[in-house]
Amino acid sequence: MRAKGFTQRVAAALQPWRGPEFPDGTLHKLEIAARIDYAAACSLLWEDWLAYGSYVHVRGLAETATRAAWILGKGFDSCVGTEESRARCYELAMAATLDEEVNLFVENASKLLLNGPTPETIAASAQMLKWLRDEHANDECDCQGNGRRKAEPLIQGLASAQPGNQLRIMDDILVVWRHTSRVGHHTGIERMLRSDGTRAWIGPAEPWQRVQMFIAALKLYASVAGWCAERFSDAVGRQLMEEMGGLTHAEVLRAIAARHPEQFR
Q1: Which of 21, 65, 114, 251 is the most exposed place for a label (fewest CB within 10 A)?
Q2: Are 211 and 257 a contacting pair, CB within 8 Å?
């Protein structure tokens, strides 16, 4: 699990990172979220049957990479506002979503025979939302005070950008997001089906499927971690990217790719 363990290396390298709350604090949160999704995907991909559960985490990585790119203004023809205001916009979206979740829990806790959020939690959530909404009202933005919650319009913006503006990772984001989103809306059982032409049965993920998912997860996480590391230190960013690149050359990955050249380019 060397690939999963590398997240500890990133965490240690970025631990001293301190910068403005917006955007650096927001980007650091996104890196931590990406780190969790990447590590979770690695854990699931380690086992052939559990590998099917990795899709939701790889989708999370695609969306997190998109949001980080938008805040930094990378890969778009144009972005409203500044890095600071875009970070605040996303923080507002998170706060609004959290406040909705808190209130939903308040409404339904008794049905689940749970105590529900404390008054302190409810008040803190509402206070955070109000503060961010007031702060963001002074920014140039078109979110109408709601924050940008949905990743899909941002992904479409990446995909439609002029060639000179497009990210190298754009195709990975778009293809992975479409592929994993479909799994989210369907049972995904068709990916488990195996057939010899006369009968069909459920089978574990093939090694090449797991390798493809791992490479997608690594590239997406590397983008987020790299962008964050570059803000902290160019030297640290270059070193981390070099080490991450080495993970794709592991002997087992090369062996699987060699056995299935039709699945890899």
Answers
A1: 251
A2: yes
Contact indicator for 80, 142 with CB cutoff of 8 Å: yes
DSSP structure string for 77-128: S--SS-HHHHHHHHHHHHHHHHHHHHHHHHHHTGGGT-----HHHHHHHHHH
Confidence of residue 185 (pLDDT cuts 50, 70, 90): low
Decide if pLDDT at 11 tops 90.
yes
| Mean pLDDT, the chain, integer | 93
Expressed as residue numbers, the domain containing 57 is 2-80+149-263
**In percent, how much of the chain has pLDDT > 90?**
80
Q: Are residues 127 and 180 in the same domain?
A: no
Q: Residue type for 230, please? A: E
> Whole-model pTM above 0.85?
yes
Q: What kind and span of H or E run contains 194?
A: strand 193-195
Of 141, 170, 186, the one marking the end of a domain is 141
pLDDT tens by residue, 87-100: 999 999 999 999 99
Give, in order, the Cα–Cα distances in Å from 87 to each of 90, 132, 249.
5, 11, 35
Residue pair 24/31 in contact by the 8 Å Cβ criterion: no
Which is nearest to 220 in space by CA: 175, 251, 181?
Answer: 175
